[in-house]
Amino acid sequence: MSYTLWPFQRQILSEMGESTLILGLPTGLGKTYLAGARLYEESRQRPIRVLFLVPSVHLGVQQTLFAREKLGVDALFISGGFPPEQRERLKV
User: Fold this and answer.
1) Which is nearest to 33 in space by CA: 8, 58, 51?
2) Residue 84, H or E segment
3) Gap between the Cα atoms of 62 and 58, Å rounded
4) Is 27's pLDDT higher than 80?
5) Residue 19: predicted pLDDT
6) Fewest C-beta in 10 Å: which of 11, 37, 46, 89?
7) What is the DSSP secondary-structure string of 1-67?
8) How far is the C-alpha of 87 from the C-alpha of 79, rounded, in Å?
9) What are phi and psi of 23, to 5 degrees?
10) How confident is the model at residue 29 (pLDDT cuts 50, 70, 90)?
């Protein structure tokens, strides 16, 4: 993982335990970073596959680039509503 969590984000992660967590933080407080940190921890114990379902193409691209750049994983983005030229340019 190539980023650092804020103290409140670390607290949320530490309190998760083995439970499932549905997180409803306001925009900009790092839900993607928290999810990435949790996935990073889980994947260190055993290989995992993750599917992100997002409501927009822009968020899909953001999640894909985040996974590649911050988590160092081979992430793919698939959307039928995204022109092939843009997919090629963004390499998603």
Assistant:
1) 8
2) helix 84-90
3) 6
4) no
5) 64
6) 46
7) --S---HHHHHHHHHHTTS-----PPTTS-HHHHHHHHHHHHHHHS--------SSHHHHHHHHHHH
8) 9
9) -110, 125
10) confident
